[in-house]
Amino acid sequence: MRGPEARPRFGLSLRLLALTLVFVLLAEALVFLPAIGRARVVYLEQRLAEAHLALLALEATEDGMVDGDLQRRLLGHAGAVAMTAYQSGFFRLRLGPDMPPRVDAAYDLREVGLWPPVGDALMVLTRSQPRLIRVAGISPKDPRVAVEVTLPEAPLRRDLMRFARRLLGLSLIVSLIAGAVVYFSLARLLLKPLSRLVAAMRRFEAAPEDPGRLHTPSTARHEVGEAERTLARMQARVREGLIEHARLAGVGAAVARINHDLKGILTTARLESDRLEAQTRDRDPDLARTTEGIAQALDRAVALCAATLSYAGSELPSARPRRLAAHHELTLAAQRLHQAHPEIAVNLDCAVDTTLSADPDLLARSLDNLTHNAAQAGARHLTLAAHTSNHQTTLTIADDGPGLPQRARDNLFQPFAGSARNGGTGLGLPIARELTQAMNGHLNLHQTTPSGTTFHLTLPT
């Protein structure tokens, strides 16, 4: 029995926690990016509004002009280098130097989309060199007035940095809280029941015959509860099967010993029968015929004992499948059948390029069991065919025998119970199906009529 497997270094709980944090942080990032873009737009709109208020001071003067000291104070209050107001598309008011300063970039807030402000905000956060920018847009104070402001970018960067730090800090706190809530909820609803299932499986694996190790399922009506109940039913069936297997193994060992002794007794009786037949062949023909019948019955009994011993002592087949040519394998099966039963005519119906995946030895034994069964049932013609469909190759074994009786059909693949002829052991078809299943295939009775029987042996292509 294998020892307990080592627990994985990164269990499901740690992976679930990591995925929870990743998804929550991703959601926060999707919130952060539009927020930082919107913060930049709000900052610039505030500068436009302050610039408009500063320009309104010019309307209080007769000539629309102010002295240099007041102009510097108004520009400083608005955080601008120069500002201009337009109404109905015409110049109205202006503050700043006579020669407009050279700017590094210009932005128009009247043409703001969803993602361009995000990219511009990220560029501001990652750019360290000082720049002078020009911003134009509608005044928040008066939608009839358009304002154009020239201002340094450094204050905008400082404001966005403070906003980003506050938002990231809040996002991190929200992510940790949400991640913890989601993780502990999933741990309680999913991981804890799964851990119980794993522990129950390990307990059962250590001693499946012990009834005290059967899992007691919960009464929960969700999927995990159904999994627990299914596991409990499966464990009960496995335990019953193991107990039955142990009993059958004991019975089989006893039968094997009895068969071994019985085979010796029957062999001795067969020798005595042969000696008696030789002595009475000339003197008493009736007694010789009787002795011959006894000898034949003894032969069948010896054959049955040998088959029982062989079947009881055989191990489960181990397949080593490889790609085989179906036409070649069917040809070999036909040749082997001809050597044992030369009176049977075999017809091959298989394309040369048809392939299948099988163990050549196990496939040969399966085909031989099926073909020899057909010969022993009285067939005179046999058809071996192959065709491929849906990544599977089906081998067809069809004969023109008398068909299977109802008793044989009812116990078709049961050892010692499905023989269609007197004296048969009923092991051919069960062994053929066992060999086919070892190759990941299946053997089925396709049809049986008074004019013949057809079996399908299906294997991966």
Automatic annotation (TrEMBL):
Pfam families: HATPase_c. It catalyses: ATP + protein L-histidine = ADP + protein N-phospho-L-histidine. It is an enzyme of class 2 (transferase). It comes from the Bacteria. This is histidine kinase. It comes from Roseospirillum parvum. Keywords: ATP-binding, Kinase, Membrane, Nucleotide-binding, Phosphoprotein, Transferase, Transmembrane, Transmembrane helix. The keyword Phosphoprotein applies.
